[in-house]
Amino acid sequence: MVYKAYFSPTGGTKKCLDILVPDEEGNIDLAKKDYEEDHVLCKNDILYVALPAFGGRCPSLAIERLKRIKGDGTKAVIIIVYGNRAYEDSLIELYDSVKAQGFIICAAVTAVAEHSMIREIAEGRPDERDKTELESFRGKIKKRLNENKEVENIPGKRPYKPLSKFLPPSTDSTCIRCGQCYLACPADAIDQMRPDITDENKCIGCARCISICPINARGYDKDKLNGVKGRIAKQCEKRKDNELLM
Ligand SMILES: Cc1cc2nc3c(=O)[nH]c(=O)nc-3n(C[C@H](O)[C@H](O)[C@H](O)COP(=O)(O)O)c2cc1C
């Protein structure tokens, strides 16, 4: 059976994964609130795992949840989706984490999606050009999986770059307390009765609450967001292509 495990707070990671692997069997949603699933895969299964890059690393909540998926020499393909800045050590971190769970990593993909924190960066991606690129990887990956070879030379360094602290979104006075952000938050960081209270120790800054709020009452602090924009703008200018590493 083919499994697709993904952590996709605002949907970009899942979009890229679905282009690469259109089958809908075996979905494992690692960003589900109160994720409590254990999966044991057998030798003949195949696992595709897709995570976003956050500060050039994998979201630690996703890495924790990945520990509940075990392989038995099972073949896997790892995918990092990033917002056209840089993926830095996230791919090698995902490689190490999946390998430690008993998988053989046959191929790795990096793909670009709209930047979930600063939506005007890589806006509209994955676009048609990305779709064509990612679709062209499908056959090559299948062939590689049949060859039983491990991927070599994953970019990134160990020890990984330090984890960053991300901006926790907040709620403005237009909030109608519908509770949708509370229900959707992967990190359980939002108070059910008082959605204006975000637990900054739990919040991973993933932007899901911002993207699902029906009345746009949630957002990052504008000045702080502008600060981040200014710091990363130069690095995001040039369009980055999707990559297949084998
Ligand atoms: C807190 C945070 C940190 C991010 N860090 C990076 C980064 O280091 N490099 C980058 O290119 N994109 C970065 N992004 C953009 C995401 O990797 C990208 O938008 C990804 O598609 C988000 O996945 P999702 O749409 O499945 O939530 C970051 C986004 C957020 C919210």
Report what the structure shows.
- This protein is of the alpha/beta class and 246 residues long.
- It has 2 domains: 159 residues, Flavodoxin domain (Rossmann fold); 50 residues, Alpha-Beta Plaits (2-Layer Sandwich).
- 29% of the residues lie in helices and 18% in strands.
- It has 7 helices and 10 strands.
- The strands form 3 sheets. Strands 2-1-4-6-7-10 form a 6-stranded mixed sheet, sandwiched between helices. Strands 3-5 form a two-stranded parallel ribbon.
- Strand 6, helix 3 and strand 7 form a beta-alpha-beta unit.
- The longest helix is centred in the middle third of the chain and has 20 residues.
- It starts with a strand and ends with a strand.
- The chain binds flavin mononucleotide (FMN).
- The site of flavin mononucleotide has 27 residues, from helix 1 and strand 6.
- Flavin mononucleotide binds next to helix 1 and strand 6.
